[in-house]
Design brief:
With about 280 residues, this protein is α+β, with helices and mostly antiparallel strands. The protein folds into 2 domains: about 100 residues, Aminotransferase class 4, branched-chain amino acid transferase, N-terminal domain (D-amino Acid Aminotransferase, Chain A, domain 1, 2-Layer Sandwich); about 160 residues, D-amino Acid Aminotransferase, Chain A, domain 2. About 30% of the residues lie in helices and about 30% in strands. The protein contains 6 helices and 16 strands. The strands form 2 sheets. Strands 7, 8, 9, 10, 11, 12, 13, 14, 15 and 16 form a 10-stranded mixed β-sheet that branches. It has a 6-stranded antiparallel β-sheet with strand order 2-1-6-5-3-4. A hairpin with a 2-residue loop joins strand 15 and strand 16. Helix 5 crosses helix 6. It is globular. The chain starts with 14 loop residues before the first strand and ends with a helix. Its cofactor is pyridoxal 5'-phosphate. One of its GO terms (biological process) is amino acid biosynthetic process. Its EC number is 2.6.1.42. Keywords: Aminotransferase, Pyridoxal phosphate, Transferase.
Length: about 280
C-alpha cells in the first residue's frame, strides 16, 4: 500500500510461517510488504498449546467482518500453521502473533510468528501494578487492527510515568479499557466492566465474565466515570499475557486490590480454567 507505514520486523526465534511455508527470521522482507489495514491476534502458547485458539480465531474473523472483509483461510489451515510454527521453534512458552493482511485481495497474507513476550512477575501479582489514565478512544473498538501510531504514543507515556499499563478514557470522561487489556472494577459484591460495544472484546475478558457467572459473582456491563474512581473497592486488568492482574494505583489513587476477595477468587478460577483447557487439548 503506497505511502502507508510498514509493519515492524518483530518476529523472533528461528522461523516464521508465511501462507503455510516456513521461513528463516534471517530474511524478514515480508514485513516491508505488509500494508494497512491489517488485523491480528496475539495468542499465548503454553506447553505447546495455543491457548483459547477457537476464541481468538472467532474474534479475528469478527474483526475482518467489522471492516467489511473476510478471512479466506479455514480454521483448520490456520491452526495447522500455528502448530507447525510451534514445532519448528521447539515449543517455546511465548506469545505468537497471527496476522492477516492484503484483506482486499484473494491472495491474502497470513503471517504467523513468535514475538517478544513479557509476563508479570510473581511480585506484581502479589503487590499489584501502577497504571495511568490516558485520553484516547478507538475508532472501531471491537476490531483488533494494527495501529502503530497509537501504540507508539501510549508506550511513550507509559514509559515516562513508569507505569505498567495505560487506562483509556473517552471524551465524555468514561473509562473504556486498557491500551492492551480489559479493565474490571469491583464495588461491594459486583464486578463492573465497560459494555461490549465500547471495548475490544478480549478473549480473557470473555472467559472472566463467564467464570464470574458460573461461580455466582455479579457482572455489570456499565461504564465507570473517572469522577467515580474514589468509590470503587479495587480493580484489575486482564489480557493474553497477564491473566488477572491486580491494579494498586491509577495515577495518585491507591487501591487494596491485591487483598480483595473477589479479585483473588476470579484470579484463581481463571488459572484453573487455563489448566483445564491445556489438559483437554493435550489429550486430543
Amino acid at each position: 500500500m503506497k505511502g502507508a507505514k510498514k509493519l515492524k520486523n518483530e518476529a523472533i526465534l528461528d522461523y516464521y510461517i508465511l501462507n503455510g511455508d516456513v521461513y528463516s527470521t534471517d530474511n524478514m522482507d515480508i514485513f516491508n510488504q505488509i500494508g494497512f489495514p491489517s488485523i491480528y491476534e496475539v495468542i499465548r502458547v503454553i506447553d505447546g498449546i495455543p491457548l483459547y485458539f477457537e476464541d481468538h480465531i472467532y474474534r479475528m474473523r469478527k474483526s475482518a467482518e467489522l471492516l467489511g472483509y473476510e478471512i479466506f483461510k479455514s480454521n483448520e489451515e490456520i491452526i495447522n500453521q500455528i502448530s507447525r510454527l510451534i514445532k519448528v521453534n521447539n515449543s517455546p512458552n511465548l506469545n505468537i502473533k497471527l496476522l492477516c493482511s492484503n484483506l482486499t485481495e484473494k491472495n491474502q497474507i497470513i503471517l504467523v510468528y513468535f514475538i517478544e513476550s513479557h509476563y508479570p512477575t510473581k511480585q506484581m501479582y502479589n503487590r499489584g501494578i501502577h497504571t495511568i489514565l490516558f485520553n484516547s478512544e478507538r475508532k472501531n473498538p471491537n476490531a483488533k487492527v494494527v495501529n502503530t501510531s497509537f501504540r507508539e504514543k501510549v508506550n511513550e507515556k507509559i514509559k515516562a510515568e513508569k507505569a505498567y499499563e495505560a487506562i483509556l478514557v473517552n471524551s465524555a470522561g468514561y473509562i473504556t479499557e486498557g491500551s492492551r487489556s480489559n479493565i474490571f472494577f469491583v464495588k461491594d459484591n459486583s464486578v463492573y466492566t465497560a459494555p461490549a460495544g465500547d471495548v475490544l472484546l478480549g478473549v480473557t475478558r470473555k472467559r472472566i465474565v463467564a467464570l464470574c457467572k458460573n461461580v455466582g459473582i455479579n457482572v455489570v456491563e456499565k461504564n465507570v466515570h473517572v469522577d467515580n474512581l474514589d468509590e470503587i473497592d479495587g480493580l484489575f486488568m486482564t489480557g493474553t499475557s497477564v491473566n488477572v492482574l491486580p491494579i494498586t494505583t491509577i495515577d495518585n489513587k491507591k487501591y487494596d486490590s491485591v487483598n480483595n476477595e473477589i479479585i483473588k477468587r476470579i484470579g484463581e478460577e481463571y488459572l484453573q480454567d487455563v489448566r483445564g483447557y491445556i489438559n483437554l487439548k493435550k489429550k486430543k
